[in-house]
Amino acid sequence: MWVGALCGLGVSASAAGTEYANVFSLPDTDSKRAYDLLAKAFPDTSGDSDTVVWKVDDGSVGDRAVRDRVEPALDRIARMPGVGAVASPYAGDRGATQISRDGTIAYAQVTFTQRADEIPKRLVQDVVDTARDARRDGLDVELGGQAIQRVREPPSGLAEIVGLAAAAVVLFLAFGSFFAMLLPIAVAVFGVGTGLFTTQLLSHSTDIPDLAPLLASLIGLGVGIDYALFIVTRHRRGLLRGLDPEESAVVALNTSGRAVLFAGGTVCVALAGMLVTGLRFLDGVVIATSLTVVLSVLAATTLLPALLGFLGPRVLSRAQRGTLAERGPRAEPERAGGLAARWSLGVQRRPRRTALLAAVAMAVLALPVLSLRLGATDQGNDDASTTTRKAYDLLAEGFGPGFNGPLQVVSSGGDSAALVKGVEATAGVARVTVLPPAGGVTLIQVVPTTSPQSERTDRLIDTLRDRVIPAAGADAHVGGVTAVSKDFATVTGDRLPLFVLTIIGLGFLLLLIAFRSLVVPLTAAVMNLLAAAASFGVLVAVFQWGWGLDLLGLGREGPINAFLPVIMLSLLFGLSMDYQVFLVSRMHEEWAHTRDNARAVRVGLAETSRVINSAALIMVCVFLAFVLSGDGSAATAGVGLAAAVALDAFILRTALVPAVMHLLGAANWWLPGRLDRWLPHLAVEPAEKPEPAPAPTEATPADGPASVVHGFVRTDEGDPVEGASVTLLSRGGRPLDRVISLADGSYIVSVPGPGAYLLAVTSAAHGSRARHVVVTDGPLVQDVELTGDEVDSARP
How is it placed in the membrane, per its record (predicted)? Predict the structure, then answer.
């Protein structure tokens, strides 16, 4: 079914083509009113326009030798099918305005008959090659514009392929099995593939920006691989415990599968939070990304079990299959040992120091966010070696830095002459051009003295709107790409607090229902905000301050795209909730069985930190691969999300969260009784079904003579352990008796009657161990050995 769906959607999408549309609708903004007036007065501005720029080292661009090389090239470009017109600086009086004052730089405007994303790349490449053929010593020719930028983009799918290859390496190192490595890759390919093909079909019926598929594949690859990783890890654990493949798959889906469903739901909720901003541009992003996440979850919970059944025990490495064959069907369960257990024990021993160091590290990384400036990037931020960046710089050199982002003052009434005089007299205005009126609308082109990304240009827009236009008594509005970018940044900044409160509130509610606790979701909310601040601090340092941009090959520094905070916060909060769910669900499971918070946090961290870190490393590789996408916004989002995931997994979930939970103690799981009765019940990850056991182990405490369990607590070298906490619990997790071992390691706990119990032993210096004991009519001798480098979790 999945193969049929992928192939069918692929054929349909290929036949239908794409219809992506970037709809920047900003109702009730000045730039939107200016755009509406221009659309009525000048409706024939459909095709996109690009620019051919040339510069001479000596003489003038009007020299015959220069014209003899440039004019034939422009004529050939004008005759190409798909090119509507070419405005040459050598044609008519108006063309003279396309030559710089010193005569060394000129430009021609190439207007296509289609939008940039619809123009065939072959046509654009022909334009580029024809223009560059005019080069010679002393004559430099460069090209800029949206269509030209598409030609320099890497091949489609390069970022996805590199991300999948990096993920495959990490998965193979984690699993040690080629087949186990293929499973998450297959799930991600099917989930992302069906999601992108469906999005492509939906682009014909709704407005979806061309950035949406790239972001959808970015998030889809990350969550698809991670969700499959969690389920496969649980399945392999079941196989190593001696379960047959079918039963192990059932257990994995009923435990980690539940957590995957919940985690995928939280990601979709966070993505849907973008809708509260009211920005139509983001609606298509929500559709594409949410659809891809949903299909990735479906692939992880339906396709993956089928593949697990197909592969059977081959998801284990050869060494693991050999060990399992030697032990037989009663293989011992995996234990969290080695570095993970030692780290978990270290966090428990020094929670204050761990929490302080982690919090300081995150705070330092978050400091640059205080300098965050929202705006829009353009081709001036491209790499210095690209032709688009060179053309941008040549235009700025010849016609002023504001030439690349002119303002449009659109007047529909009042004294236009007084308005023109007022604009010309305004500080920060380099040149003013008035176009002939059409339909009662006058268009005044204003070239600022500063670049489109300069804060002084933003202040000029405010001056024109607040002072110059009212003083002239005109009914006018300021538009243009630069003004639209400024309005977009303002609207986004105004609506960002509501958006953050919405997704934090929804996430808090989901975690409250899942874990029956007020403190756990509150802690998660604080951690998510801290992760967001630190990740945006990294973005500001890299893309706004320029630290490491040359190393990454990502061009020149500039403001952060205004829409990125909303998109990144949605993705970040969703992914952070994933790790919180997988970490805390294991802690909650242990807490439900033992009612020992220290043990629950220690065991949960020890058993999940390795898989969370592996999942985070995979996501970091996938996200960083999008630096190769050729799209500046996707590259920025990739770097930001990679930093966010790395900080979240390696600092917050591995250090700060467990340290804080150790400090809070049993308060982590506090919930008022009345609220507990009101909340619906949702089992995120129920305990695994115990293996069938002999009848006595299934017994419950019965009426009978009281008895005791006694013995010694020793290290693996036979030394007595003094001061160990020994607790006897019922099968339901209710503490019955608790004592401290003596100097010789001896202990004795009272038993209410015959039956099955859980004996938990904890020592700060030597680790912990829990085991099931069955008490009959008399005292039971039970010695306990603590190794100090493992966390042995037992479930009733």
Answer: Multi-pass membrane protein
Q: Cα–Cα distance between 608 and 604 in angstroms, integer?
A: 6
pTM for the full model? Answer: 0.72
Residue 140: strand, helix, or coil: strand
Q: Contact, 262 vs 581, CB < 8 A?
A: yes
Angstrom distance (rounded) from CA 265 to CA 294: 8
Torsion from C-alpha of 739, 741, 743, 748, nearest 10 degrees: 80
d(CA 668, CA 660): 9
Question: Residue 786 to residues 557, 729, 766: CA-CA distances in angstroms?
Answer: 56, 19, 6
CB 759 within 8 A of CB 705: no
Interstrand relation of 476-479 and 725-729 (parallel, antiparallel or unpaired):
unpaired
Pairing status of strand 755-763 against strand 407-411: unpaired
Look up residue 96 and give its two tokens. Answer: 């003279």
- What CA–CA distance (Å, rounded) separates 50 from 396? 16
> Could you give the CA distance from residue 97 to residue 91 in angstroms, rounded to a whole number?
11
Neighbours of 572 (CB within 10 A): 24
Compute, in degrees rounded to 10, the torsion defined by CA atoms 151, 155, 156, 160. Answer: -140
pLDDT digits (tens, 9 = 90+) for 362-404: 999 999 999 988 877 777 777 778 888 899 999 999 998 888 8
d(CA 247, CA 228): 18
Tell me the sheet residues that pair with 698.
none
Q: Give phi and psi for 341, each to the nearest 5.
A: -70, -40
Q: Report yes or no: 683 and 255 within 8 Å, Cβ to Cβ.
A: no
Token pair 């190409």 is found at: 80
Percent of the chain that is helix, strand, coil (3-state, to 5): 60, 15, 25
DSSP 8-state symbol, 691: P
And the tokens for 357?
A: 């160091």
Tens digits of residue pLDDT in 264-300: 888 888 888 888 877 777 888 899 999 999 999 999 9
Which of 81, 79, 57, 61 lies closest to 70, judged by CA?
61
> Is residue 350 within 8 Å of residue 662, measured between CB atoms?
no
Residue listed under structure tokens 């990740």? 535
**H helices present in 367-475, as ranges:** 387-399, 416-424, 455-463, 469-472
Please give the helix or strand (H or E) that residue 635 lies within, else none.
Answer: helix 632-647
Residue 100 DSSP label: -
Let me know: does 264 contact 684? Beta carbons within 8 Å. Answer: no
673 burial type by CB count under 10 A (0-12 exposed, 13-18 middle, 19+ buried)? exposed
Question: Rounded CA gap, 541 and 366, in Å?
Answer: 10
Helix (H, G, I), strand (E, B) or coil at 721: coil
